[in-house]
Every structure is written in C-alpha cells, then in structure tokens.
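Project standup — Tuesday

K.O.: blocked on the structure for the chain from last sprint. Re-posting the sequence here as requested.
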Amino acid sequence: MHHLNYHHLYYFYLVAREGSIAKAAKLLHVTPQTVSGQLSTFENQLGYSLFDRINKRLYLNAKGKLSYQYASEIFHKGNQLAEILNTNDEVNTKEFVIGITNGVPKVLFFDFVHHTMRQFANVKYVIKEDSFDVLLKELAINAVDFIMADRGIAPGTQVNANSYFLGESSLSFFAKQPLGNDQRFPECLNHMPLLMQGNTSGIRHALTSWLEAEQLYPKIVAEFDDSALLKLFGSENFGVFCAPSAIADHVEAQYNVHCIGKADSLSERYYAITGKSRAEYTLSEHIVETARGLFTR
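H.V.: unblocked you, prediction finished:
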C-alpha cells in the first residue's frame, strides 16, 4: 500500500479510542454499519486486521496498538494545527501535556512547575490528573508528555520512557487537635482513627510496614486515592493523616490542623517520567531541575 487513507484511519482511530463501533458511529453521526464498513475497507487495504473480535467485542491486537499510537499523534497534531490556523495565534503554537498522579500534593506540584510555566509562557499547558497506570498508558501513545508521580517505573515495564528521581520528603502526621501532655508520638497512634492513602499511592506499602514495625495498630477509618480529599476529611476531625513534611506549614494553614509528629524513617519519593520519543526535552529538563532544586535547599 503506497498511500494511507486518512478518512479510514480516522474511523479506526475513533473506534479504538471509544472502544466500540456504536460509540464511534454516534460521534460521527453515521450508522454503525457505515463505521463497520469503513473499518473493514481499511483493514482490507492494509492486508491485516487491527482488532481481535472476541464475543462481539473489539480488542486492539499488536498491529492495532501500534496503528492507534501513530493515529493518536497524527490527529492530535492535526487538531493543534486547526486551532492555530482558526485563531490566527502565531505565538501559542506548542502544547505540553503534564500528568499528575493522585498521590502528589497539589501545592508541591505547583512548586515544581510554576517557574517553568512562567519562563515558557508561549506554551499551552494541559494538566491532567489520573492514576499512575492510566497516565503511563497515555504516555506510551504520546497523549501525555510528562508525568509527575509518587513512584517510578517498575523494572520490566514495557513502556519506552525515562524515569527521573526528583527527591524525597519525610512524612508528618496531622490531627485536628494537638496532643495532650500525656501523649507521645508515635505511641499515640495506637487505636487512634487514621485516614489512610489508597492502594494507588506510592507511600501506602511503606506506611503499612512502618506501622507494623513500630507495633502501632490505629483504626483505619477510610482510604483515599485523592490526597486532597484525605486532608479535607482530616480537617473535619475524621481522623489523623500523614502528608509530606515538606508541605507541613501549608497543610496546617490550609486545613487548620496540627502537626503531632514526624516519622523521619518514613518518606515519600517523587519522580518525573518522560517519553523517550518526545521532543519537548527543554521543558521536561527545566521542571526536573527546578524540582530537584527544591529538595536540596
């Protein structure tokens, strides 16, 4: 095949993105039969199928995943071009998509990126929050340029990416009321109501191990994937919670709570993850250098 039919490619792209022919047809304002026919024509032209059809559902096969990766990049750039041409915007010509995992404190993320956003003001920044696994998948198809996370890439992960260690912070514990004179940290956590990070958080396993090592058995009231939501419930006296010591002053002021102790042996680590095939290295490097500088002060 010498020429790629972009009309057929777009139909394939929507089916892959939406997960079904019916949903793609609804977006295109055509019948599912039309979409199915265009998809079949496209696969016939290629000479191989892009989906495995199992129990009337479509699953991208290896060639389909590769095709979807390139199609995503093609239509993403096409949308950018259309936006620039339609608005006559000759300055804001670049888009940089940053993903942030749920466990990274928002105030820390702001400290990491705001200098870069001011220095490179001609760039349009898109900030997306999601789970680590979802953001990593989007990085793999070039839908995300940069990820800020509370964990790095696990060994053996089949994603072509670079992982940078930014720094770490010990964890402090916070409560609505300060400790009484007869209470000592960390013994006071025994049987105390505790708000815990969810399984998606990078600190969850370390926190659980620390409690066991210290022979502390708090009452787990609730678990949260979202760190801001956890702090909000803590501010309403639902239980004690922990957060990075690096933002302790902010947590006390923002949520009207008191720091009751710091666990120096317990720390949260932060990472930046970038795709190896992306060209926005200047922006990525600037954020990484800024973030690392904050931890060495």
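K.O.: great, moving the ticket to review. The first helix runs from residue 6 to 18. DSSP finds ten helices and ten strands in the chain.
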